[in-house]
Batch of 4 targets.
Target 1
Amino acid sequence: MQRYRFFVLFALGFGLAQALAAEPVLNLYSARHYQADEALYEDFTRKTGIRINRIEGKAQELIERIRNEGSNSPADVLLTADAASLAVADAWGLLAPVRSPFLEARIPAHLRSANWFAFTSRARLIIYNQRLLQASDVQTYEALADPKLKGLVCSTSGGHIYNLTLVAALVAHLGEAQTEAWARGVVANLARSPRGGDIDQIKSVATGECGVAVSNSYYLARLMASDKVEERNRVKRLGVIWPNQADRGTHINISGGGMVKTSKHPEAALKFLEYLASDAAQRHFANANNEWPVVSGLTFENEELAALGRMKADTISLAHIARELPKAQKILDRAGYR
Ligand code: FE
């Protein structure tokens, strides 16, 4: 009896404490994999009083999880590190339309849809080994399929989301037939079977195991700023190309997010999305994670990004690229680009 009373009092007391502690909260499902984001979330909480519960995982896992959770999903915001994943979440009907004059004014139209927004951009650069190739050999993504690069190309797996999105962009620009011929050409040029992430490709190009590869810009900037002298030296010897400067511009991918349709905290979710487009957050993405702000005209201090220089970016709409993803996947399968 005594014990039971204690249990009841304890339970009631616990419930009361819970109720008192019902501070505003945001449940964030994030596929971003960067340590630097911690400071961003802390700054958001400091400014708004909204605490962030974060669940990290691969985009595909998070999307599956939201689907399985259904209307009970605690997720308020989904953040990913590429446009394709957002498009997939959207195609499953997981994202809510967000009307925000602030976001629409801050984020260029080609970097958002009705249901998701880019907060940073990153370029897919061509990096090459200067002992094995000349800059003039690798000025475009198309050049990677040129038979004279036989045995020199390294790549992540064909279906790696960064690669898949690039191929979807090629479909959007060149059409299906030409993109398939390109994919077959790249496969014929491979130095080894596709594996690893962008950092692995950079290392292999530096050692000369491969002559050329493609990498997201922030990985290169990260190595340029490394506190390990061998990493800094490794990238110093690499040739770096902004692809397709003479025509459509370099392929750009994004990191972005949207509000989950079943969000239980839509006001907090909107505040968070708008925070990510604020000057402070935009500068943080550049300074701490080597990504470019999507808001134009912002100054930031990042020597490595500055050293990469300026380029002409492809301004095709990411929503358009996303529509070509299924075709891109089929092309990669048919070409044996795995
Ligand atoms: Fe990445």
Target 2
Amino acid sequence: MFHLNWIEKPHIKCRNNTYPGGPQRFTVPDDKVSLKVPFPDYNPVDYTDEKVLTAPWADRIKDLNSIQFNVLGRINRLNYDGDYDVDANNTPINPKGRTGIIGRGLLGRFGPNHAADPVVTKWARNQDGSIKFDDKGIPILMFVAIKRKDNGQWAIPGGMVEAGDTVSLTLRKEFGEEALNSLEASPEEQAEIASNLDKLFANGSQIYRGYVDDFRNTDNAWMVTTVYNFHDESGEIFSKFKLKAGDDAGDVSWKEITADLDLFASHNEFVKYVYEFRLSHYYLP
Ligand code: RP5
């Protein structure tokens, strides 16, 4: 695996803004994010979205005391980069620091909420099929991006790992649903999608596992993901794929990985890690 831990910089996207569909977060300056720094005036807003309080996929407040945190059960409560603390009420504390909101916001789980992100790549090519290079002579990598319906941002087609599901199942399912619209495909198209996905997802490389600076994070609930790269070196597998947005995606497209990408949550970092990883293989003797 290429990267294991969150780069040591304070989270930004889950701070100093209005929570989606919710209240204004209490302002947390950069130097007060860390829990090691005292912040006596800190007065975060308590917010858990109505639908989280009643959703069958969410933890129930009445069960909070009996939840065992920092363990892997049917629901993964591990954080991947060390144990997190829980307070006197058995409520987990975001180890990456203050966000200006307590409660769960839009997230179902107390503590880590696990996702999986498939970064599907191929080299950009010229008309004649040769690999395309940028003006520094570096081969250009492309990845499949979706446009999220919830906030209009371009993103990796990832999704939540549902209780009892594995990361590998989620990677494949989310890519199929969001980038290939498998949910609305005919039985024949579904069979074809499944056979192409078998080929593409047969060999993946784990690139990152850890915290995500997601706009939904709070002091008590946060996103954690596992990022895999699935790469089509020759571009042949993808000549058979027809990208079509589905489920939570409003659009889908191949995007070149360039310095000016502005992706959802920590996805800029994730595609950058994938690019570094692919280049390190490309230049191997
Ligand atoms: C991000 O949220 C993860 O990196 C993943 O891409 C995504 C999962 O949430 P949904 O797409 O299911 O909303 O933190």
Target 3
Amino acid sequence: MTDDKLYCRVVLKEATRQFDQEYTYAVPEELRSEIATGSLVEVPFGRGNRQVDAYCIALQSQPPSDFYIKPLVKIKSDRPVLTDDQIELAVKMRERYLCTYGAALRCMTPSTVMSVGDRMVRFAALVDPTEAAARLSSGEIDRLGHVRVIQMLLDYESIPTYELQSACQVSAAVLKTLEKKGLISFFRGEVRRELEDDLNLPAIQPDFKLNDAQETAVNRICESMIQASEQFSWQECLLYGITGSGKTEVYLQSARQALADGKGVIILVPEISLTPQMVARIKSRFGNKVAVLHSRLTPAERYEQWQRILREEVLLVVGARSAIFAPLKSIGLIILDEEQEGSYKSETHPRYHARDIARMRAYMHHSALVLGSATPSVESYYRSQSGRSILLGLPERIGSAGLPRTIIADMRQELRDGNRTIFSYPLQQALRNIQEQKQQAMIFINRRGHSGFVLCRSCGQTVKCNTCSVSMTNHASLDRSSGYDPRRSEQQEQLICHYCGKITRMPKKCPVCGSSQIGRFGVGTQQVEEHLARAFPGIRTLRMDQDTTAGRSAHAQILKKFADHEADILIGTQMIAKGHDFPNVTVVGILAADQLLGMSDFRASERAFQLIVQAAGRAGRASEAGQVIIQAYNTDDYAIQAAAAQDYEAFYKQEIAFRKMMKYPPFGSIGLIVLAGANDNEVRDRIDRLYRAMLKWQNDNPDFLRISLTEPGRAPLSRIRGRYRWRILLYGEHQAAIAEFMAHTVGAEDMAPLTVTIDVDPWQML
Ligand code: ADP
Ligand code: ZN
Ligand code: ZN
């Protein structure tokens, strides 16, 4: 019998910022052998001793004070659900992203990991599929989210609600509404646990013999791993290599080294459902010793993968953004493929960037971090130029193809020459060629540009959603047949708001001035498909955009069809620019390449440059050299010019000068505060008060006077889902100072009933 007591320090799983701190509880005698740091426990909290969930983050034998210390109630997990470094990470995230411990830890413990052993989940199914299909085609269902759910259930019969919500991007409330309308019903059912992918593993393939540049890169990365581990530090490498230069091979062979040393490896890809080839390649090297994590896993699958990692059955993890939190015990190497991608930044709370988390974990695990890209972000390239990371280059494409030939088509000139179509003469010629020679083409349009909006030619207004401040996009009727059918003369037109999902009929008159001079303007993927069908009779097209890709495996199906040459042209948004290898594609057309430039965002040029280069990289990946036609109005812009010349350095030199002059990242940091609420005046008053409080705090704490604040103003997206949005921007030299400033000011105030969004170095400033 020992007299020693044991205490545990915990943080709450759910807490407001006010209660978000460490608390100490006594560990009862009988639980001492079971408890560990990382355990999920239940503790009595507050005056009423309400029982709440908490994580044990440390154990100690000394009581924190002489006061009575409450004992914890029970331990809810049979083994720790967190690793030590995850706890340390949560502490850092809390400081950096102004979130609670619980919010940070939720990133590291998928909800299903908590419901240990629970195989039964809630499913949704259509009450009457025939009736649902009829109500869908009658136009009675007028919300994009509702349409997606019903279409998906028509395809799959029944789906776990969790999965349905994530695949259709709808909330639980939407499912509830559909239930009330008598369209869907719920039941509890068991989910299958086997991982479908493991059943048909590709044959194991040997490594390629590396070329010189690849070999240098792999050697340097392996050296970095050794140095980081020996010196208890970390190292960052930037692997800069054009598309098709063999970066993936470098990742795989470096990973093999780390695994051989018994270390864990995380490979992050921007969006895993868009990169099936990458996953297939990894599996063909490492068999089923890989855990694949992505957003379309069912809860049971995610649970199973997480457990395999926690039990150390797998050391290699591949996944999208959230996989950076994978509970590996000892990490040797972290790789971010396409490190410049926006999908690495979380747009929900906590608004972390996977690249920053990767740096934190590399630092804690003494590992190497490899950022790979054909068009590195300006921030990452700057780090390599200023000695904070090691630049590794793969200057040549593998194989004989060489770079594609690039043409900029000046659409103003085309118009002067009498071309009123959306395709420039050079693109028309190129498409005729592929039709004759039985090759394939890809056509990109900008999703973020104003494609397919409806404009009044009398008053110049666009038709906007009446609950959001954004232009609505027009689409042919969303019935279940995919693809444009030129024989159906009257395609019914609808307008969709891509923020709230509302669908309305195309108005006959301008809602603002009543003029009937109203029509669609710009192009969407559907219009491109229609124009192609008219201009090139017999051409077979496929289209990939938000509307055609709601289902679970829709992406993969479309890509497979295209790879099997069931279509001649693939039309799509940025989505199709990533990671696919289609050897038969010899022509790439980029429509309205300059549309991104007009965005009120300091990264507009960078994004335009990246998109064009990436899209161009899709042409001629096999033996045949490709041809790229870039259509633009603003042809003199440096981003367009540099992209056409495939000249990253030229672009970087201009861009970095601009960033330096403006003190934008990497020369400074930005904080964004958005306040939103249903009452415009209330939001404005509240943000005015906040602004004055911030100025006062700054005056009282002169260290922070170097941070500058903008006066409160309407956000560019001034209204979303009926809520008015106002914002304040902060500019300063150091991210940490901005985070601290925001924590003391906006973080300390109660904004209810308004919602507040805080973002440090936002990806989108809208
Ligand atoms: P990236 O990731 O830079 O786009 P990949 O790694 O996909 O480039 O390589 C492009 C193509 O070249 C792939 O089909 C790949 O299998 C092949 N490849 C890569 N490295 C080698 C090599 N050392 N020898 C032969 N083929 C290679
Ligand atoms: Zn809307
Ligand atoms: Zn009008």
Target 4
Amino acid sequence: MKKHILVVPGDGIGAEVTTVGKQVLEAIARKFGHEFTYDEALIGHVAIEATGSPLPGETLTKMRAADAILFGAVGHPKYDNDPTAKVRPEQGLLQMRKELGLYANLRPIKLFDELLDASSIKPEILRGADILFFRELTGDVYFGKRERLDEGNTAYDTMIYSKYEVERIVRKAFEAARTRNKRLCSVDKANVLESSRLWREVVQAIAPEYADVEVEHQFIDAAAMLLIKDPKRFDVVVTGNLFGDILTDEASQIAGSMGMLASASVGDNTGVYEPIHGSAHDITGKGVANPLASVLSVALMLDISFGLKAEAEAVVGAVDAVLKAGYRTRDIAGPTTQPEHVLGTDAMGQQILQLLQA
Ligand code: IPM
Ligand code: MG
């Protein structure tokens, strides 16, 4: 199979982890006889520094021309404490999502058994948890009208959803539930918010078309609690952009570490595959970042964008085997990890590559 992949490392540890992700793609191409070509582009803080824009036109052109995008992270601490900054790295990410129509963000939460002791949650609560989140990605308060009034002393953001936006993500979630345990939980705040009442109405209207899927509705506050209390009760979860952002960071603890979680952002065109973790400037350049979320993002790309199931399974299998062999990056090392098994980014990547070359 011939595919053209755009690598967009972005900021912070993005470059370190996507380097490993790309090596995994190269190894898969060799092992399975595919022809993958690559290009690279800037986004975020590094793009602002180079061009003044967090999403340069050239990047967008390259993105549209690619079959899939391997993405790192965006963000820089310099903006976090400067609320007045007019241009911010995150704008590049949000604009990319909008421009490419990436309305569905899939965040699978699956605990590798070997990482049971890496989480701060009790093993008996975690064992067997397997959740697929569908976070809506191009609507909500992220894109609604926002403004400062009253000489800057008042501010508002608008939580806004249209029926078609809810419908398309909810349908994707129902379809996925059908291929899994046939349970769908829709998360909203319909006891307070009008946009959530619309959301719930849409889910209720679509549900009869998927009569084989059991549907439940939870309010965001209760969902946040249940996720930690009993993660196994969830199969597929569908929710809006902001609630999904928050819930999936929480859910990352079910997978042991943020450093393990991959995501796929898809719409009707090119898909973007990225870790859910951020740019992590505190560890940038130290060579200790966990590359496994980027590696698992590659698995999602192979599966979802290219339909290469065996190749995707080979990647996930390699991650599983490396963990079974006892190797850990710092973030997932537990009390029983032997010190010599704690690896840096490149060494962890090498372990995965060795297995894929075998
Ligand atoms: C994510 C991130 C982004 C978001 C930030 C970096 C804007 O937290 O992808 O979850 O809020 O969507
Ligand atoms: Mg987030």
